[in-house]
């Protein structure tokens, strides 16, 4: 009875360990690549989570929520069209 009981506990232990590994792999398989593919843009240029600053009002916001504009060759990000228009007006007015 002593040896049989020990073997049974050993088998139960191995089964539990295998189940644990299976569940762990399932969780990683379901969440890992999915979460990562959500972060990456389809174009693959930049990571979406980058924080950018609106130069007009100073607000920080995620790049994928920001309005993108090209000002003198470089990219600038704004929180709203109002900020973008104001910045573009303010930046280019002195020239003309
Ligand atoms: Zn703004």
- CATH architecture level-2 label of the largest domain: Roll
What is the CATH third-level topology name of the largest domain? Ribosomal Protein L24e, Chain: T
The spatial strand order of the largest sheet comes to 1-2
Estimate the global geometry from the Cα principal axes.
Answer: rod-shaped
Put simply, the count of helices is: 2
Largest beta-sheet characterization: 2 strands, antiparallel
What's the CATH class label of the largest domain? Mainly Beta
- Estimated share of beta-strand residues: 15-25%
Question: What is the SS-derived class?
Answer: alpha+beta
Please tell me how large the radius of gyration is: 28 Å
Question: What low-confidence regions span 5 or more consecutive residues with pLDDT below 50?
Answer: none
Number of domains in the coordinates? Answer: 2
Q: List each distinct ligand once.
A: zinc ion
Distance between the termini: 98 Å
H/E series, N to C?
Answer: HEEEEH
What does this structure look like?
- By secondary structure, the chain is of the alpha+beta class.
- It folds into two domains: 1-39; 51-95, Ribosomal Protein L24e, Chain: T, CATH 2.30.170.
- The protein contains two helices and four strands.
- The strands form two sheets. It has a two-stranded antiparallel ribbon with strand order 1-2.
- Strand 3 and strand 4 form a beta hairpin.
- The radius of gyration is 28 Å and the shape is rod-shaped.
- The model has no long low-confidence stretch (mean pLDDT 82).
- The structure holds zinc ion.
- Residues 54, 56-57, 59, 78-80, 83 line the site of zinc ion (ZN).
